[in-house]
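#struct-queue
[09:14] JT: dropping the first one here, sequence first, then the structure tokens:
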Amino acid sequence: MAQPPRVIVIGGGIGGLTAAAALHLSGRRVTVLERARSLEPVGAAISLSPNALRALDVLGIGDEIRDLAAWSGDGGLRTPRGRWLSRSSAAAAAERFGGPLVLLHRATLVNSLAALLPPDTVRTAAETTLLDPGDTRRPARVRTPDGELEADLVVAADGIRSAVRRALFPDHPGAVYSGFTTWRVVIPVPGTEFAPHETWGRGRIWGTHPLKDGRVYAYAAALAPAGERAADERAELVRRYGDWHDPIPAVLAATRPVDVLRHDVHHLAEPLPAFHRGRVALLGDAAHAMPPTLGQGGNLAIEDAVVLAHHQADLPAYSAARLPRTSAVARQAVRVARLNMTPNRALAAVRDTAITALSLAGPALVLRGLDGIADWRPPQRPYASVLSGAGER
């Protein structure tokens, strides 16, 4: 009896695991090759908007993830002194986009995706090199620590510095520095209650959000030279944000230096000509890395995965489906970064005044910013109904 076509997924992050699960459910024989020694993700939390949750419905885990939503009340944008610029609510978000916004630890999502795969699907400590992208007449080939492998389809989910992307498109300039760096922590903060918020200063932002497990996810971003690092990143956060509104001082007080992750932000300023070549498809940050200002990097990777599974026999159709959407969202993310990271005092004042005025006239800015993004639906059922928010099964 012939074996099903083989798929190799390079990269065991969220995009790679989603693609592996979607392709496995479509009947493919999948192998995931992850260069790290475990699937434990580098990072803190991830925000999933209704577009990604509908994609996860295709895999059968959308409702499982929706149940992790912790935001049930009001939230919004604030100034460093605590004044609300814009208020929004979980109910308004669900009504506008047909489902909730869910914030969860990346490890939780990775575990849920990995559970969809057969045992031994994932090979860790497996540094992989693309040898040949293949074509209609020959399979793609990769080199692994255990030797060469052939595949009918190779999915490159190897991140922002994708070696596969460089091999497929050697003339593309690659990722560029976005001009700012980020810090992230996930910690318990006993005795602290707050409305989830993002705070915009001049050249700096801060966000504080509760998780379903009782911990707090906090993140910060600031304009900084590329590669700059502090001897003590917690002390650096205190220096930059210690005098901002509550609960930021309490979060900083509960943070240890070891809790802080810091990463510079890079993005693909020039879109790729395609997301495929031969039998190889790119997805997630390997295809369209963008600033995190819309919270859509992981969401679009999840979208990519289910669309790729849908068009797995026609990779030009996959590129055609994904390039326009991801390029538009990436451009919007860059525009938002320029807005919320401006260091100019006068421009920041005008920005804050405009946000307040716009919010008084209609939906909060955070919701408007997701129009045309969070209402996306995958090309196949089951997925959540926009009108009812209930799962169509």
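[09:21] JT: and here's the second one, same format:
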Amino acid sequence: MLAGDLYISDDPTIVAAQRQAVRLSARFLAAYNEDPEAGQTLARELFGEVGTGAFVRAPVYVDYGSRVFIGPRTFVNMGLVALDVAEIRIGADCQIGPNVQLLTPTHPIDPQPRRDKFEAAKPITIGDNVWLGGGVIVCPGVTIGENSVIGAGAVVTRDVPANSLAVGNPARIVRSI
């Protein structure tokens, strides 16, 4: 999966790992609802890494959680969907708006492999000091360069260079920052 190879999506090992992520996500939500600061301890269990000073708001929805790496001082707003079949790396000092979707899975174009439940995945990389506005969707294999801003509701289907403002569906660069 991590190498981008095809895999069967309902393999029992995969299903078990996803169930564990659901349990950890539920524990994170419950802890967060009691005390948002204390909930951060559970966020550190759920995700592969949560850097010093980073803060994650609940709820979050993940495939595994363990393949999401959040840099120091990054803020993740509520409603993050991180389908982390491949790694998702979020840099330092980022702002992730509400209801952002980071989607690494891909599916075959041909109908029979889809029917057979084959999938693959491509990693997502978000550089330091990036702001993803509310409702942004980042597609598989995309890299967003440092200091970039992605406008609310944008669908990012290809790489965005550093120091860029991108908006729209599909996202297009409208100016340098």
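[09:30] RK: nice, looked through the second one.
[09:31] RK: The domain at 7-176 is CATH 2.160.10.10 (UDP N-Acetylglucosamine Acyltransferase; domain 1).
[09:31] JT: good to know. The helical segments are 12-34, 36-46, 111-115.
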